[in-house]
Structure formats: C-alpha cells, structure tokens
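Today's session is about reading a structure prediction critically. Students often jump straight to the picture, but the first step is always the sequence itself: look for stretches that repeat, for charged clusters, for runs of hydrophobic residues. Only then move on to the predicted structure, which in these notes is written as discrete structure tokens rather than atom positions. Here is the chain we will use throughout the hour.
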Amino acid sequence: MGLDFDWTTNDDQQREAVLLSTVRRHKRSWRPWLIGIATAVILALGAWIGYRIVQQKNQAALEQAAQAYQQLQQQAITSHNGALFQSVNAAAPAWLSAQLQPRSWHSTLLNPQILHVEPHIHGLIATIQWRNQADWQQRDIFYAWRKNTLVQAPIPIDYWGDIVTVQQPWGRLTMREVDSPWIDEITQFVNRAILQECNERCRAQRLPFALTIRSSFATTAAPRQLAIASPRLWAMDAVGNPAPQFWQALAQMLHNQFA
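Below is the predicted structure for this chain, in token form.
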C-alpha cells in the first residue's frame, strides 16, 4: 500500500495565497470596466432606437403633408377652382401653364398616393403612384416650402445631376445623370424608329439629329434638335421604368422628325 505525502511547503502556500489574492483583485478591477462598457452599449442602442422612432415619425408626417397637398390639388382641378389651384402651385407663369396640360393633371384625378418622400433643402421630393386602368404608374414631383405650407414647383436642378452626352450613329443623345440608366432603352427605341420610318433618302436629309431628355416639358424649334421631358415627369411603371406615355410621346416626336 502506497504512502500519501503532503509535499506543500510554507513557501508554496504563501505563493498560492498571493496568487489568489491577485486574481480576486484583478476580477474586482475589471468589473467596473465591464459594467461601463455594457452601459454604454445599452445607451447607444437606446439612442439609436429613439432616433429611428423620431425619424419614422418625421417621415410619416412628411408623407401626410404631401398627401394632404395632393387632395387639395385634386379638389382644385375637379371643382375648377382657379384660386385654390394657384395657391397650391408655384407662382411662375410657365409652371402654371404646364400644370394645366392634361399630361400634368390627368394623374391627379386618379387619386394618387404618396409612395415615398425624401426631404430636400428647399422642400420635399415625392414619388406618387396611381392606378391607370389595370397598371400602377408613378412619377416624381417636388413640393417647395412656402412659409408653413407646401406648393408644387419644378424639381430642383441638383436632383437631376450632371449632364450626360452619348454619341450615336444617328446623332447625339443628351440627358441628366438621374436618367442615364435608360440610355440603352432609349437608344434602341430610336434605332428601331429610324429603321421603320426613315429610308435612305430620309436619313440623308434628317440625320444626324440631337435628342435631349429634359428636366422639364420645354420644347425647341431648332432644326435637327428634339427635346422631350424625362420619363420621371411623364410617368413610370410600377418598377420605375418609363411608362407607355413616354414612349408614345417619343414615337410621335420621331415620326414628325422623319415625315
């Protein structure tokens, strides 16, 4: 039968006691740091949640304000109330004239709803949507602050971005940066129109020409210069691509060019 010996000396016991004391002291010294870090994380998370709640409330308030404007605009058009119509639109004569065109007020009669609102330094940029027969359509509009109320006004130039110019076999295509994702679509549409409507004699007489996708409905009478408003002003489909109204207007413009 073996013997059990206690090989621990007094020195070993002293070293062990010192080690245990040091570990306990370090544990106590780390606790305030851990508590502080945890508290800071909780406070930061609470502040972020609070910010998101306020942001969502502000977003909802902006959407409600824009929707209220749409209702006033619709009331002005359906009741033929000129004073109310002027009160909810910017005072610029050219702008008012453009809003009286069917292409501008047609969607207002279809009970448009605010799809999205983005704050802008001078007001709000909103996307409205409406049902056109069986299809949902949308377009972008701008509300400018006038004192404490909103009026519809031209979309600020900084929304559209820089000018983008692309050389084509038939001439030059110019548009703003925000519309540049549609370069290929528009180019292919023009190419098809030329093949269908413009023979060799027509091409010799009518090409090249410049096509500009504008940030307004302003037109031009300059020879070999065509201008059409952005699809964002005409209409877009449910996923944000140019709607039939834009393509129909462009087709008519090209037809007139080649006639």
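Discussion point for the tutorial: The chain has a mean pLDDT of 80.
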